[in-house]
Amino acid sequence: MPTDALAAVFTADNLTVIVIATLYGTFVGAMPGLTATMAVALLVPFTYFMDPVPAISAITATTTTAIFAGDIAGALLRMPGTPASAAYVDDSFRLSQEGSARKILFVSLLTAAIGGIVGVAILALAAPQLARFAIGFSSFENFWLATLGITCAILAGSGTVAKNFASLFLGLFVASIGIDVAVGHPRFTFGNVELYDGVSFIPAMIGLFAMSEVLRNARAGANVERLTLSLESVAAALSGAVGAIGRLKRVIAQSSILGTLIGALPGAGADIAAWIAYALAKRGSKTPERFGKGSIEGIAAGGSANNAGVAGAWTPALVFGIPGDSVTAIAIGVLFMKGLTPGPQIFTNDPTLVGALFGSFFVANIVMVFTGGLAILAATMILKVPRTVLMPMVLLSSLVGAYAITGSTLAIWIVLVLGIAGFFMEENGIPMAPAILGIVLGRVLEDNFMVSMMKSQGDLVAFFERPVAAVLGALTLFLWALLLIRAGLQLTRGRTSAHLTPEET
Amino acid sequence: MRSLVSLVAAAVALAATPALAQDCDWTPERAVTYVVPWGAGGGTDANSRMLASLLEKKFGVPFNVVNRTGGNGVTGHSAIAHAAPDGYTVGAVTVEINTMHHVGLTDMTREDITPIALVDIVPASVLVKADSEYETLEDLLAAAKANPGSLTASGTSQGGIWHLALAGLLNAEGMDPAAIRWIPSKGAAPAMQELMAGGVDVATPALSEGKALVEQGELKALAYMHTDRMKALPDVPTTAEVLDSGWTLAAWITISGPGGLPDDITCSYEKAVLEIVDTPEWAEFKASRGADVVKMGSDELAAYMEKSDAALGSTIQAIGLAK
């Protein structure tokens, strides 16, 4: 198998496809408002005319780079391309404002590649076993997993426990707008049919992060001292990034493995993976106070976990033909189109193809380092633009980007309303990242809770009856107890906790 | 005065239409929007994208597929129905056009769209886990009859097409439509995940969606809700064979235009699609999905949709979901 598979990976056609797909993925990922799913859906008609191996390579290379490229707009403009990047957008944006945009983007790029490679290695070694475990997740386990995800947002948020909760609850409230998942009742829509679908996370993310940043700059007005930001040289940035990665080996390894495992679970994905890895890195860090204010450690943890999660997401798709997300759903369609049936047999019937898939994934992660590097060099030029010119452009692209993704003017209102909300949250030291996770996971949480309640006919004990659910549930309850104790301590210490909240200067 | 002018114009248009309709030679001159009311990655999306790329080849202008999801299909279907009937917006109208108005989601019906051609027929199935104690559909129904409400099933949302498949089957067999409780899910894939995880006892998605897991021996297909067996899974009995009621249910996907699409445009698209479904590329695509090629033009499709609307309406009525 290895030689056949290698031969299939290293053909001129396949390598060309990978290079083009990484460029395409970088472009789409870096554009706020375009998603990895959309990028892959647009690829499908092209894959029809390709051989199976290049077709799969095109999809894997596109998704891998699109998830990384989401970090570019996040670091430069505070517009995270994916909810998976939202976990550490404050860190990367803060650091890029301090003049190390290229360094932290290289950290993002390299950790993304490492995460992706670790993910593929785990897949190649243990995909069938991992899939067997993942397939055992029902709504009960998924409910606890989502709960664990949002608990991590509180644990890792940069404010006090109370302020993190405030942010999370705002996000959960926004997620409750729209048609209720279980019984189909409209909530908080005030008769507006467009709100039936709820508030989609892309306009929400653009509003909370990018729009509020524009508002903050507008208030600073003419007294913006630095009109442009400095850019470090490529060599300095690269060596800085490589040095940082060398120091963060343990965090990156831990986050990559964790990211792959979480990504393989059907109810989770790259975003929960990034959050849990971020929270865990903060717990283990010597400098937890830097998290949310410019921690390279946090960027490395989240950045490697979400790309590892992308690889992990292939597990149930490849082994059982059950897609964990819409990207792998499309990929399964393409596999079928090529006469390949995903399933345990694919490993014995088509070892060359499976080997080539893993090989292409691996190569895509390597090629991404080069194409992504070029993208970083090109994109960071944006920081040379004076802020007084840049900010109106951000405003314009925020609104256009939000409109483009939904095709409705409602998205523009969402950006504006949440932009103002985000501005006031920031003024009061309330972090915005937990709100984003609330918006992303609120529906997942409610959906799985309601489905579980319908199954058990209202019996709460059922949430602890299945072994995996019981473990996840106990872990979550333990974390909640911990958080309540910490919140109590912060309250009793009163004013002394104020140093935990970043006051804007 | 103005009304007289428009009357004359209408008369001229009317007189001109039959002549044009004969030719069926309308062609788009700029990009066409192809609206898909369901998400990327699903069966409707895959079929529509394939058809769009072949139409693009045929007409030489881009066919841009746009996924207008949400509102259980209402959003996308109204985007198709209410677009300007100029031939530059077409879309994938699916079986839900006949269910949404019965359950009170919208007032829109099949009258508000112009059917062009059938793209796919997707019959439902009855699936259980490979190690399930039920070997046949009769076993399962007997268990449901003995202990109504103890078994659970999933496949789609409450009132969605696969829910109607199961509830309609139970109803047709003279049982309580809720004898097997419905657990809503976001689609066939999460439902099969639940089935594999032991979260529900039965799933009733399209057999084509469960085919891979059945072939691998992870799931057992107890029945195919169709009149003929599936070529790819010839061992799965049809409900028409095993049930007294002969119950069958299939979802379908069409290519349709907005309401009031002029005849010449409709028949030009119809001609193009009917030619495409005869090509080896289309046959290969369908075979890869384990589906048969279906071929049905505008008039026949309109009659088919009317029949389907009546049948689904009485099922929805019978299981108490009508509003």
Automatic annotation (TrEMBL), chain A:
Q: What does UniProt give as the signal peptide span?
A: none
What does the UniProt keyword field contain? Membrane, Transmembrane, Transmembrane helix
Q: Which Pfam families match?
A: TctA
For the DUF112 domain, which residue ranges apply? 15-437
Membrane-crossing residue ranges in chain numbering: 31-49, 55-77, 104-127, 133-156, 165-183, 195-215, 257-281, 317-337, 357-383, 395-424, 430-446, 467-489
InterPro entries in UniProt: DUF112_TM
On whether Transmembrane helix is a keyword of this UniProt record, the answer is yes
Protein name per its UniProtKB record:
Tripartite tricarboxylate transporter permease
Species for this entry: Acuticoccus mangrovi
Automatic annotation (TrEMBL), chain B:
Q: Which InterPro entries match?
A: BUG, Bug_dom1
Keyword Disulfide bond belongs to the record: no
CDD domains noted in UniProt:
PBP2_Bug_TTT
Keywords assigned by UniProt? Signal
Identify the stretch annotated as signal peptide in this record: 1-21
- Which one Pfam family would you cite for this protein? TctC
Record bears the keyword Transferase: no
Family to which this protein belongs? Belongs to the UPF0065 (bug) family.
Protein name per its UniProtKB record: Tripartite tricarboxylate transporter substrate binding protein
